Input
Amino acid sequence: MLLLDLYIDLIITCIVLTGLLHHAWYAAGGVTSMDPFLKKFFPEVFRKKQEAKTNQYCKYDNQLLQTFTSSLYLAALVASFFAATVTRVMGRKWSMFGGGLTFLIGAALNGAAKNVAMLIVGRILLGIGVGFANQVRYLLLNYSSSSIYRSSLHHHGYAYI
Output
């Protein structure tokens, strides 16, 4: 029964981490190609998309759209440096809590966004949450897995997430 509990915890941990990282890394690519999103936040990109006939790459040539997309990645990079210090000083619990809370606030802000500035601030908060989640990702996988699989989960974390 204990082994079954460990596997259930491991599965739940993988699902949570997958949802967190998948939403942050991959969802924006699909959203930025949707017409209603482009009409509301990036009308000039939508106009270029409608005018483009053959070249797919010219449709999304817009600095503001690129800022929206890359703000998460840059924030995650910077936050990962601070996450190590926060984890060392305050402990893993508060590091995970702060990262998760920041991610949730960013997701709520993106969901309620009325303009591009709100979108970018939301993406920055998402990036901070992802930076903290990457700090503790291996730790969560190691704590929730049995000793038999711990090494493979640690070394192949991206494959399982």
